[in-house]
Amino acid sequence: NTKNTLLPSRRDVLITTITTTTSSLLLTQPVQAKDESMNYQAVWFDPKHPNGYRVLFGDDQKATLLLRDEPSDEERAFPVKVVKEAGQETRLLFDGGGVSSSSEGNDGTTVEGIFTRNRDKIRIISFNNNGKSSSSNNFWMNKKFEGPIGVFKDSTNPKRVIIIRQIKGSDCVVEFRDSGRSNQVTSTFTAKAGNTFIFDFPDRGEVTAIFNLFRRTLTFEDGTVWTKY
């Protein structure tokens, strides 16, 4: 029947389960996307701000950084210049002293992130006014290993950016942004992880999806597929 043709078979599907502790999140490495330079798009963990998050999404030239240090803080957004270097590195040039002061604890100047493809880290480097590196050896850790937590693209809407963040335990928040409208937020709602992923859509109510670890996809019964970077 239709349902069986949409759901992946048991032998090649591993369903992530997020319980009330972060240690229960899935830690198995998934298959990388073909364009590995775009894999900087993810939800990142900054060990200097363990209660916050960093989200990066964009294209091969420019991106947006969403940053929050504490749950009570206001989320801030910064433009990012993306430079694909020869070899395996992608440079992320952050614009705005707030990134420096928040992430690095200093007042000055420019901050650069070095993303090495096929890695789960971004190395954060600060530069003073003379262009000299004052790196604090800070690394943002990629949460791409934690099942469906991350940044997705929608098979039905190429301009839609989907961000899924863990709030606590199995509770998650989902955010739709429109890349064709300056990444404007178009919808925010909640989701809960378990044997299946349950989304509480504002206009559709509860809808279930299956996460396929190897294909990096969330598949809905109507055929919609969200693919993780």
* Structural class designation: mainly beta
Listing every helix as H and every strand as E from the N terminus to the C terminus, the arrangement reads: HEEEEEHEEEEEEEEEEE
End-to-end C-alpha gap = 30 Å
- Topology, number of strands: 16
Sheet-strand content, in percent, reads over 45%
Helix % is under 10%
Q: How are the strands ordered across the major sheet? A: 1-2-3-4-5-6-7-8
Uncertain stretches? 1-33, 100-107
Shape type: globular
Taking Cα atoms only, what radius of gyration do you get, to the nearest Å? 18 Å
Q: How confident overall, as mean pLDDT? A: 78
Largest sheet: 8 strands, antiparallel, barrel
Number of helices: 2
Care to describe what's here?
The longest helix has 8 residues, at 97-104. β14 (205-212) and β15 (217-220) form a beta hairpin. The protein has helices spanning 2-6, 97-104, and strands at residues 42-45, 53-58, 62-68, 76-84, 89-94, 110-116, 121-127, 138-142, 150-154, 157-168, 171-178, 184-192, 197-201, 205-212, 217-220, 225-228. The protein is globular and about 55 Å long. Mean pLDDT is 78; it is low at 1-33 and 100-107. It is mainly beta. The two termini are 30 Å apart.
